[in-house]
Amino acid sequence: MSTQVAIIGGGPSGLLLSQLLNRAGIETVVLERATRAHVLGRIRAGILEWGTVELLREAGVGARMDARGISHDGCYLTDEDLMVHIDFRALTGRSVMVYGQTEVTADLYSAQDALGTTILHEVSEVEIHDLDSTRSHVTFTHDGQRKRLSCLYVAGCDGFHGVSRKTIPEDRRRAFERVYPFGWLGILSETPPVHDELIYSNSPRGFALASMRSEMLVRYYVQVPLSDRVEDWSDDRFWDEFSARLPSDAAARLVTGPSIEKSIAPLRSFVSEPLRWGNLFLVGDSAHIVPPTGAKGLNLAASDVYYLHDALIRAIRGQGTTGIDGYSERALARIWKAMRFSWQMTTMLHRFDGEDAFAAQMRKATLDHLAQSETARRELAENYIGLPY
Ligand code: FAS
Ligand code: PHB
Q1: Contact present, 152 and 29 (Cβ < 8 Å)
Q2: Is 200 a catalytic residue?
Q3: 137 is catalytic
Q4: How far, in Å, from the CA of 106 to the mean position of ligand 1?
Q5: I want to staple 126 with a disulfide (CB 3.0 to 4.6 A). Which of 93, 140, 379, 387 is the partner?
Q6: pTM higher than the cut 0.90
Q7: Ligand 1 centre and the CA of 84: distance in Å?
Q8: Is the peptide bond before 274 cis (omega within 30 degrees of 0)?
Q9: Known active-site residue 292
Q10: Successive 10-residue mean pLDDT values, the chain, 389 residues
């Protein structure tokens, strides 16, 4: 088999990169470890930055998002009953889109099918070779056979646990990491949202987030110790704890119901540098992980794709290698800013076990300053809606 760009991983990064490259006439093959159903069954992100929205429209996959997504002009950060409104529209002139990653992935798969692109599912034993020669190749097992895919470039879109990052020699990689001592227990429930905008709640009992997918599907989270398991949390226990962490007037409006999905995700900040190794380019979660407090994970994958797709098109068309030569530095500049924002939101809104009263006062003072200062609110809004690409 031969192609121009081999894409390892068929999540949002891999599918969006394949979509943009194929629309530009560049051939790709996507190698995905899981089944399509498994990829589409993942419940992940819910907020799209304005840059991601525009990129999805440019990729020709914006129609369903524009029809079913919900534009949000702001959100709330709360400290017990203090509710600070961050008015994105007034402060930045922009909004974010509430539209689940699951829907984005489904739209990308449909568009890829329409283009007739090659996506192989249930591949295994992927190995990447000859990254320092003019043609590289990827070997993998599919349908019980060992196969070889020759290519010009390899895009490592295979997430945190993928093979791409580890293909870069360990002594040539530099990792930066912060593992947080808590996780998020998330549920989906077919109930109306407690508020028309998201609420990030900082409570003495711990963090809670009231998000949504539509007018009748909510996505709620509570901070839990890393030792907790999903089976420790009945629906009743979740609703009691979630309600106790909300501002009282929001709690009074809470409509509860059965959970249709319940899972616990650990929180970490992680960056691996560089993003390039010869003909291999790391994209999305294969290179970086952010705590979901800043709603940046999926959106950082999108900005990586934005930078890389343009660079690969130029290189393959013979218009020079400035783009691919500068990809790692350019993408990392935006990644680190999003990393900082996500870390700041996480430390500002979560209680850390064993923290002293001073730490709690710092959180209160930060929220109090946000309440008083339009400048502070604008700084947060600029980061939340997404910094320019
Ligand atoms: P992904 O991990 O989505 O996709 C990688 C793909 O590569 C997967 O389909 C995998 O099967 C495949 N793969 C892995 N190894 C392979 C191999 N060796 N060969 C072939 N294929 C391979 N972000 C937010 O913004 N908000 C959130 O609330 C949020 N919640 C999250 C909750 C959880 C539990 C997790 C894990 C992540 C969450 N994220 C959230 C982040 C998430 O949305 C990612 O940023 C996003 O999925 C990144 O997309 P990809 O880079 O495509 O990586
Ligand atoms: C979600 O809806 O899943 C979501 C929204 C905002 C976040 C994290 C998760 O910061």
Answers
A1: no
A2: yes
A3: no
A4: 14
A5: 140
A6: yes
A7: 31
A8: yes
A9: yes
A10: 98 98 98 97 95 98 98 96 96 98 98 98 98 96 98 98 98 98 98 98 95 96 97 98 97 98 97 98 98 98 98 98 98 98 97 91 94 98 97
Q: What is the pLDDT of residue 25?
A: 98
Ligand nearest to the CA of 299: 1
Q: Which residues' Cβ are closer than 6 Å to ligand 1? A: 8-14, 31-34, 39, 44-46, 101, 123, 126, 157-159, 161-163, 265, 284-285, 292, 295-298, 301
Q: Is 262 a catalytic residue?
A: no
295 CA from centroid of ligand 2 (Å) = 5
Distance of alpha carbon 288 from alpha carbon 273, whole angstroms: 9
**Amino acid making up residue 47:** I
Amino acid making up residue 46: G
Domains present along the chain, CATH in parentheses: 5-70+97-177+268-346 (3.50.50.60), 181-265+352-385 (3.30.9.10)
